[in-house]
Amino acid sequence: MIEWVNENFQTNLEEYESDVLDQTLSQFYVELRKYIGDDYESDCLKVMQVSLERYLKSKAYPKSIIRDREFLSSRKVLEGKARKLREQGTGKRPNRSRSLTKEEKEVL
Description:
single chain, mainly alpha, 56% helix, 0% strand, elongated
């Protein structure tokens, strides 16, 4: 992640215009991987977004990457990637139990 940031962020985040930051965040969310190349868990992506929001707020950035319309594209990218990862079984409870089907109940 640190290498990606060093290669793709030219200046401080708080100096980016909204449209450029939205595009950069979209690319960041798509390409984000652990050092060994594995994907992060879906919940970790949201934590990273909140951390970026907190950093920008501390630097008096005038927009919210979580709530403002200008960042809708990057939010959709993040939600899409998180959904895909959950479907692949990553997350807090990848092996959670499921309800029995009607047929399974009848067999019991």
